[in-house]
Amino acid sequence: MHLVALGSNATEREHSNAELLKQAVAEIKAEGLATRRLSRLFSTPAFPEGAGPDFVNAALVVDSPLPPEGVLAVLHRVEARMGRVRRERWGQRVIDLDLLASGGRVLPDEAALRDWMALPLDEQMKRAPDRLILPHPRMHERGFVLVPLADVAPDWVHPLTGQSVQAMLAALDPAEIAAIRPI
């Protein structure tokens, strides 16, 4: 089981961004990943604040015999076909597909994951990993990831923290969660 986050803030029109997410799911299926569960679509504030129009976000559970690196390669191909260009970190984007987790795997290792999880926000904004880090090192901090993920994998447990998606979500600031709404 692989957990995928989807997002788009290509335009200021919520409907258009939602259609882009639906297109991405169709492209993921066409690439041969078995889509098991898709969350509702959610309107979420841009992160960091002021980084562009609000997002439409969702979460997807897929199955594949591919290793996590292969699943990530599929997601990157879909992004490229849909016009994703990586110009700036956390900038406006037509589509953003993130591999959040692959079962209970920790990649590349526990020490590297812990280092990335502890990285201060100002450093997160400057640096990107040069290899796949799983689970996503900041998924536990982000309502725009956890709210949709709770729709499709509420009982998935983070292999380092030991917390379920529901528990991680409950630990977030209620004001952050209140700003996320289903569409």
Automatic annotation (TrEMBL):
Per UniProt, residues of the 7,8-dihydro-6-hydroxymethylpterin-pyrophosphokinase domain are 4-154
State the superkingdom: Bacteria
Q: Cite the GO molecular-function annotations of the record.
A: 2-amino-4-hydroxy-6-hydroxymethyldihydropteridine diphosphokinase activity; ATP binding; kinase activity
Q: What UniProt keywords apply to this chain's record, in alphabetical order?
A: ATP-binding, Folate biosynthesis, Kinase, Nucleotide-binding, Transferase
Associated pathway? Cofactor biosynthesis; tetrahydrofolate biosynthesis; 2-amino-4-hydroxy-6-hydroxymethyl-7,8-dihydropteridine diphosphate from 7,8-dihydroneopterin triphosphate: step 4/4
Q: What is its EC number?
A: 2.7.6.3
**InterPro entries per the record?**
Hppk, Hppk_sf
- Annotated GO biological process: folic acid biosynthetic process; tetrahydrofolate biosynthetic process
What is the annotated role of this protein in its UniProt record? Catalyzes the transfer of pyrophosphate from adenosine triphosphate (ATP) to 6-hydroxymethyl-7,8-dihydropterin, an enzymatic step in folate biosynthesis pathway.
State the similarity comment: Belongs to the HPPK family.
Q: What is this protein called?
A: 2-amino-4-hydroxy-6-hydroxymethyldihydropteridine pyrophosphokinase
Q: Which organism is it from?
A: Pararhodobacter aggregans
Q: What is the lineage of its organism?
A: Bacteria, Pseudomonadati, Pseudomonadota, Alphaproteobacteria, Rhodobacterales
